[in-house]
Amino acid sequence: MTETASGTAECPDCGGTGWVLEEKDGVEAVRHCRCFEERHRRLLLETAQIPERYAHCEMENFELWDRDNPTLGRALRIVQEFVDLYPATGKGLLLMGPVGTGKTHLAAAALRSLIVQKGARGRFVDFTSLVLDIQMTFDGPGTAREILAPLLAADVLVLDELGAGKATPWVMDLLYYLVNSRYVQEKVTIFTTNFLDTPKGSQEALADRVSARIRSRLYEMCRRVELRGEDYRRNRLAHREERHRP
Ligand SMILES: Nc1ncnc2c1ncn2[C@@H]1O[C@H](COP(=O)(O)OP(=O)(O)O)[C@@H](O)[C@H]1O
Ligand SMILES: [Mg+2]
Ligand SMILES: [Zn+2]
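Above: query sequence and adenosine-5'-diphosphate SMILES. Below: predicted holo structure tokens.
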């Protein structure tokens, strides 16, 4: 479809102006056309840069597939409540747990819902890529400030896989700046991480990965949601193969 500055050229309702006349209680007023709203939402979704891999993630298709794992239902409930209350709560989410438990699914689903339902300006960013991008500013013309600006400005930011990869102290400082600035400006951030606060065995704790001061900020700005259990992909695939076995 051809898009004009404000609407869709073929739109039967507004003819591409993006505005429609509405009569309410005998008074005529103009309001944005539906095509304008749809286009606006589509632009917001594109700007959010949710990776293709997680484009399908919605709250509605998050399955409570393991009846013995109450953390799935609990996490889904908390995320749904978070979306419903936005922007009233002001608190973000910290989704913690092992690989494949659905943390990124829920984070992407929440972001999408907030964009579509509430018109939030959202951004999705993967921690490892962010760290690499910032580290590259040493060699390239782009400055770290340019990389961070859209992440600081977003109403809702998903920072996926916090603590993955290894960041230099200089990058950690910038990261603290990002997290803290968002906290001070009361902007909502959703973090996911494979690291726990008190891990078993030889696993590192989240505070060791991202520094104690970032971890303590997270406490203040987020509701903590822990997911436990098995890897969804491995289990679902295994079950499917079982079913198809002759
Ligand atoms: N409960 C679930 N219902 C539906 N899909 C799921 C569920 N848990 C995980 N998935 C899917 O499995 C894949 C891995 O999940 P992901 O959210 O990336 O896990 P994590 O971020 O915890 O490592 C994704 O494609 C996701 O959509
Ligand atoms: Mg993930
Ligand atoms: Zn229209």
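Residues 57, 61-63, 65, 72, 99-105, 192, 232-233 surround adenosine-5'-diphosphate (ligand 1) (CB under 6 Å).
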